[in-house]
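User: Run a structure prediction on this.
Assistant: Running it now.
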Amino acid sequence: MVTDAVSAPDEDGVPRRVTRRFPRVTRDTARPEGGGRAAPRDAPAPARQWPILAVLAVVGLGLLVAALDAFRFGTILIGVALLGGAVMRWALPDVGMLAVRSRFTDMITYGVLGLAIVLLAMMAQPHPWLEIPFLDDTLHFTVRT
């Protein structure tokens, strides 16, 4: 029995490590935490992956709304979809293909991107809903110098 933390299983599934060097060829990767099916195995394929399908459906709806000349609402909808993905990644034990890396990394990535998209949509010109004064000062400073 090998107690090395990075020992990889051989073809029989037994952990084996002969050297302390990392292997040249990666034989297996760990599935992300929460990367199991979101529904039982006997459920139809779309039902097993409902979290990623829900996020993609809301993003698609946001793109459609943006294409129909409601840019701000469509973009906010896209950001809200990513924020919803972050919430699902935090709250649900299995999220299927919505799990890409660790739970913490996925939550931070979806949350930061969703928040950035929502904030940028709210600051879009003309007639922004959100005005941040120091950004205007920064722009004037960079253009002047």
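The chain has a mean pLDDT of 81.
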